[in-house]
Every structure is written in structure tokens, then in C-alpha cells.
Amino acid sequence: MSRIRADLLLVLAAVIWGTAFIAQKNGGEFVGPISFVGVRFLISCVALTPLALYERRRNAAPLQKADWSLAGLIGICLFVAAVLQQVGLATTTVTNGGFLTALYVIFVPLFVFALTGVRPRRIVLVAGVVSVAGAGFLTDGALLTSWTSGDGLVLIADVAWAAGISLVPAFLARCDRPYFLAFAQFGLVGALGTVMGLSLEPFSQEGLRSALPSILYAGLCSGGVAFTLQILALKYTPAAEAALIMSLESVFAAMSGAVLLSERLTGSAILGGVLILLGVVLVESGPAMQNIRLPQFWLWLTLDHAAFRRTRLSVDNVNDSNDLERALREAPNFPLRVLGPQNRNWLAQIWSKAR
Fold first, then answer.
1. CA angle (283 as vertex; 241, 80 as ends), nearest 5
2. For residues 112 and 99, what is the distance between their CA atoms, to the nearest angstrom?
3. What is the pLDDT of residue 180?
4. Residue spans of alpha helices (H) in the chain
5. CA–CA separation, 198 and 214 (whole Å)
6. What pLDDT, in 10s, does the model give residues 273-318?
7. Residues with Cβ within 8 Å of residue 136, at least 6 apart in sequence
8. Which of 16, 21, 317, 348 could form an SS bridge with 253, CB 3.0 to 4.6 Å?
9. Highest-pLDDT range among 231-235, 300-304, 314-318, 341-345
């Protein structure tokens, strides 16, 4: 999968999540928040079962204990984030909830740096500031004048969202089983939510029937589709940059709130949406510039070494000379002796020329 396709999957996930705020808020009026989370993710787990089984048949490598532990940790992050968000939505608006959820774009680069030591690109930091400013405009100042306990819970949930997003690439680097990860975390969240919900919250069959359309949308679309798309895309899009693209959910949440719940969408809110879109465009400028400079790099390469003319090089996700070396090793018909220690400085120099 190319980086652009992965980013488009993230945009689609943001659309689904933005509209899912409506379902979450409506469904929360009939069943308790923990029960809502439990049932919706049980539905997500059931929906992912065929894909997880198909993936298991294709991938014969057994899962290690560390793989199960990491998948469980990601599931715990999802459970904490989903429950806090669902509880918070009971006392906040859809627009405010979308804005506060989008603030995880601040935390994801911090988690990624703590886990990997990889610093985010400067353009990512700039895009993050622009997106957060835009998300603030979306609330039209209402958040500052009418802060509720629900707003605080949604904000705390951002830390758990960010931790989960940052850990997904670490799991995929160890074990290329995205559907298993989705299935495992949905099953864990569903089981925890259902047991805790039945133990701590009032439950009625009538309430469940009333909330069922919202639960189905949140379970099948927001969970089964959108969260799975996120996992698939995070294999190709860096987590900090993916978070910025997914912050578009606050724009779609505001639009959904205006259309379906008659929440106000003022000129300030529209400006906020434009700023968030600008932040996404800024973070996408990296892959776009890569597509521009790679043909130039190829020209330098073929001029400097005749062997490259016979090489069918895959240049997806090539961002620096280390990525280039990896791509060259995987390319058919490439003379691997060129990648010896004596030529590594040469590769870096050629890459610098093309940039």
C-alpha cells in the first residue's frame, strides 16, 4: 500500500468517527456509557472474526507472548479512552467532544518520541499547532465559557488515545497481523465493558432496544471499519502524522452536529475547519515533495551508476538514505555489493543532491 492510499484510509476513518459522535451521544441516553462501549465493541469483534481467521490461515508464524501482551496493552488503552469519551459525551456537546478528542495530536508525537526516540518533522509540529488552533475555533469559544466535567474526561481520554495510536506501529513491526490486533483489542474492550457495565450500571432490555441503532453504527462502522482502517494505515503512515489527518474527525463531528442536532456552526467554526484542513495539507506536503524529488533522485542515481538502470526500484516510503538502502535491498536485479560500507556515504551524497 502506498502512503497516499494509507492517508486516504485515515480520512475515511475520520469521516466515520466524526459522524459516530452523534450515535454515541444518542445511544448514551438509553444505556450506561460502559455498557454502550462494551456492546459496541463486542459487535466490532464479531465483525472482524472472519478477517482475523483468514489472516491466521495465511500467516503460519505463531504469535509470541510479547505480541499478546502488546495487543492487550493497546486494548487497555482503547478501553480507557472509549469509556472516558463516552462518559464525557453525556455532559458536553458533539462539537466540543470532537475538538477535545482532536487534541491527541499534541500527545502522539510525545509518545512516539518516548517510545522510539524519533523526533517528528518540523512541519508536523507546525501542522499540529495549526490543527489545534482550528479545533479551538470550531467550538466558537463555547468551551472556554462553559467548561464541564465531561470536557475534562474527554481531554483525559486523549492521553489513552495517543498511547494506543503510538503503540500500534510497534506491534505491526513485530507482527504483521493487523486484523488480529483489531480483533484482539475489540474482544478485550467488549468483554471488559460488558462485564463492568452489567455490574455497575442499570440495564434494561427496553433501553438496549432504543440504543440498538446507535450501537450498531458505532460497533460496525466506527469500530469494525474505522478502527481497522486506522490499524492498516499506521503501517505506512507515521503515527504523529496519522494523528493530524485523523483530527479531521472534529470537522466532521461539527458538521454532523450542525446538520443532525441543530448545533451552531458559525463563521468562526468554519474558519476552524479550514485551519484543520490546512494542517492536514501541511503534513501531506512531505509525501507530495517525496513524489517530486524521487524522479530527480533516480536521474542522479542512473547517471552515477549504470547498474541502477537495470533495477526495478520500489520507492514507497523512502524518506532518507537509510530507507533508500532498505528499498534497494528489496529491489529485484540489484547488485547488493553496491551497498557495502564503502558506498554508504556515496548513497547519502546522492540522496542529498536530489533533495
1. 25
2. 22
3. 92
4. 3-27, 33-58, 65-88, 94-102, 104-116, 122-138, 142-145, 149-174, 178-200, 205-216, 228-233, 239-246, 249-260, 267-304, 321-330, 341-354
5. 19
6. 777 777 776 666 655 445 444 444 444 444 444 444 444 444 445 5
7. 99, 143, 272
8. 21
9. 231-235
Q: Which sign, positive or negative, has the C-alpha torsion 115, 118, 119, 123? A: negative
The amino acid sitting at 220 is L
Total number of residues shown for the chain: 355
Residue burial 264-296, b: 16+ Cβ < 10 Å; e: rest: ebeeebbebbebbbebbebbbebbeebeeebee
Q: Which three cell numbers stand for residue 316?
A: 514507497
Q: Which three cell numbers stand for residue 142?
A: 463555547
Alpha-carbon span 89 to 178, nearest angstrom: 29
- Unique residue bearing C-alpha cell 474526561: 153
